[in-house]
Amino acid sequence: MTPQEMLLKQKLSLLQLARELNNIKKACNVLNVSRQHYYDVKGNFDKFGIEGLKPKKRAIPAMPNKTEKSIEKRIIEYSLDNPSLGKERVAVNLRMEGIYITASGIRSIWKRNDMLDRKSRYTILEKRIARDGFSLTPDQIQALVIKADCIKERHVLSYFPGYLLCQDTFEVGYIKGVGKIFMQSVIDTFGSFAFAKLYTNKTALTAADILVDKVLPFYSKVSLPVVNILTDNGSEYCGNLPNHEYELILDLFKIKHRRTKIRSPRTNGFVERFNRTALDEFFVIAFRTKWYYSLNQLQNDLDEWMFKYNFKRAHQGYRVKGNTPAMVLLDHKNRQKLLPA
Questions:
Q1: Residue pair 310/193 in contact by the 8 Å Cβ criterion
Q2: Would you call 111 helix, strand, or coil by DSSP?
Q3: Three-class secondary structure of residue 256 per DSSP
Q4: Which residue in 169, 162, 232 sits closest to 196, CA to CA?
Q5: Nearest to 150 by CA among 171, 119, 121
Q6: Beta strand spans in the chain (E)
Q7: CB 174 within 8 A of CB 307
Q8: Contacts of 21 by beta carbon, 8 Å cutoff, 6+ apart
Q9: Are 151 and 158 in contact (CB under 8 A)?
Q10: 269-276: long-range contacts (C-beta < 8 A, 24 or more apart)?
Q11: Percent helix / strand / coil, the chain, rounded to 5
Q12: 0.70 exceeded by the pTM?
């Protein structure tokens, strides 16, 4: 119940109690209100009914220094024509038209018209387009395109299976008698189909080995190209041809190498999330239920889990939508998607 509804209920209760007791003074004492308040309520009820008991909206005071309506209208129009500009820029540009108003004054006008932030101005502009269908100015088009691009960047652009693969090195842990264990992870951003292989070191040779041993033969078998691979800037991925094995493999198979922003692991979020899934759903359980004495023993169990991950486990990603990665990857319709012109 809102405060307005509670106040209306109290007023109606006062009138009803006075009627039942047949005594205004007692009713006012019980509800702890003055008799003048009762008569005010009774008068409004008799004159206007229940509508007369509802709180009145506060009238907007007429300020002596309020901006003229014609000027305010022009500021609103200019702000919607240029929705990406801040209040300082709008104030400076309007001076060229002979409108002298401070940035704080423009902010007050924006606040009164629910267009205080840039997102609100974009929303108002979009609603006007939907309602009136008028032509946009070049500045408006550019502003809306920028907004659309910002929204689009929330997801990785991947047009078909094999268009963009993400690769990363994940330190699994330590096995006595074997040493440190590293996992090379590769995942397809289109449908989350993944590959994983274990090594005892992280070098350019191990980074290239998973491509030659698992990734490229699989995509060749299903007749899909690998166009781009995204990695971080680690030494196992970045180097100079022809002395760097990983760069050499990418160059040999005409695969474009894309790198993440420095110190921004979220840029490679697909494979980072896969590493976390492998840790939680396989390694944490495996190391608590079985003793491992060799790398091959652990790799065999990892391969079994990877088969379940790709072919049996339903995924809830925005591209997979409850299907398995294999169902998305091997869908013939997806193979026909081409790069945009």
A1: yes
A2: helix
A3: strand
A4: 169
A5: 119
A6: 164-175, 179-188, 194-199, 228-231, 256-259
A7: no
A8: 27
A9: no
A10: 269/156, 270/156, 270/166, 270/187, 270/189, 270/192, 271/166, 271/167, 271/168, 271/185, 271/186, 271/187, 272/168, 274/185, 274/187, 274/192, 274/194, 275/168, 275/170, 275/183, 275/185
A11: 55, 10, 35
A12: no
Residue 162 and residue 223: Cα distance in Å, rounded?
10
- Give the residue from 200, 190, 161, 193 showing the smallest Cα distance to 299: 200
Domain 164-335 has CATH 3.40.850.10: no
At 288, list the tokens. Answer: 């608590």
Run of H or E residues at 91: helix 87-95
Q: Tokens in use for 85? A: 């500009």
Listed by start position, the domains of the chain span: 3-53, 69-152, 164-335
Predicted local distance difference test score (pLDDT) of residue 135? 58
Type of residue at 316: Q
Regions of the chain with pLDDT less than 70: 1, 59-64, 132-155, 263-266, 318, 332-341
Residue 12 is encoded by which pair of tokens? Answer: 């109606």
Here the tokens at position 146 are 């920028």
Contact 194, 306 (CB under 8 A): yes
Residue 43: CB atoms within 10 Å? 11
